[in-house]
Write a structure and sequence with these properties.
8-stranded mixed β-sheet; D-Amino Acid Oxidase, Chain A, domain 2; alpha/beta; 18 strands; 3 domains; FAD/NAD(P)-binding domain; 27% strand
Amino acid sequence: MMSTADVIIVGAGIVGNSTAYYLAKRGCSVIVLEGDKNVGNGASSRNGGGVRQSGRDARELPLMQYGVKNIWPHISEELGYDCEYHQDGNLRLGKTEKHLQILKKLADSAYDCGVDVKMIDGDEVRAINPYLSEEVIGASWCPTDGHANPLSTTLAFYMASRRLGVRYYSGDKAIQLRKIKGHIRQVITESGAVYEGDTVLLAAGYGSRALAATVGIDVPIEVNIIEALVTEAEPHMFNQMLGTAEADFYGHQTNHGSFVFGGDCGLEGFTEDPIDRPNSKSNCSITAPCVCRGIMKYFPDLAKAKIVRTWAGEEDKCVDLVPVLGNVEEVPGLMLACGFTGHGFGIGPAVGNQLAELVTENKTEVDLSALHYNRFVAKI
């Protein structure tokens, strides 16, 4: 087994796989370590598939704009696999005046950054999507947003990376980082295997925190459980991506015809003893019914749709709700890409593209300074 490479990536989700792909395109040798037996079995395959600029924090928005302009439009052709990307707009829905205030603040911020987004009233919402109920009194509308298939996209980057020579090792969890002469050099796994490289990228979701801690870096992220569900195939209704003002409900209709919806009830993690389900991907018994009640209020025509299955995933939530990206000054050679707070899929390809540039050129086209780990350093 070859255990050395220019870059060692921990985590084979959308961020780890896309970074590996873009690094390999730049001529780097890359090893990707995945603790699960299956590639992409974390948040990257357990999300709603949104590819959106609207509703994002201004600090991460430039990355999403870069991805929408330069990567997503031709992603299927480049990777040689259908990622089911649709750029048919995003409606973020509001049912109360408070919701509209939240949406307007987000829309104004995005508009100031150059995003084509505006507020529309309930009648305009139903002109775009006539299946929405009268309870919706307004929305933000971004016609350049969209959605894609998380499973297909994550797999597409994996397969493209393999074709370029990236080596993957799965089913052996990384548990420790090791410095040599002050520079990060090694990743040690549960089996005792040691992988060595000039750069180590942690893209393992919440698992990145424990690994970073082995070299004295504490990333302020926690884990939340988010759930999703999928229906049987229905006749085609709409292509827009949907969300809500408080981000508690989202979804879209797939190419297959099924609907994928996700959300939370706010009680995940409180209904069972965490000792019995530590860092699990198990469902909370009240989340799916809560999401279904929301679906029926927004889309009365789906009241009788049959649910095929539900699933849960871990969201690595950062203390300030935006990801931690880039080099760690205290540990040369260490890079972070974690804390995406449920925003990681759509932004993932752009993150991988820019981190690959950072490794090879020591700079990025998109300014990542507002997302660096050093924003948490205590100020005197």
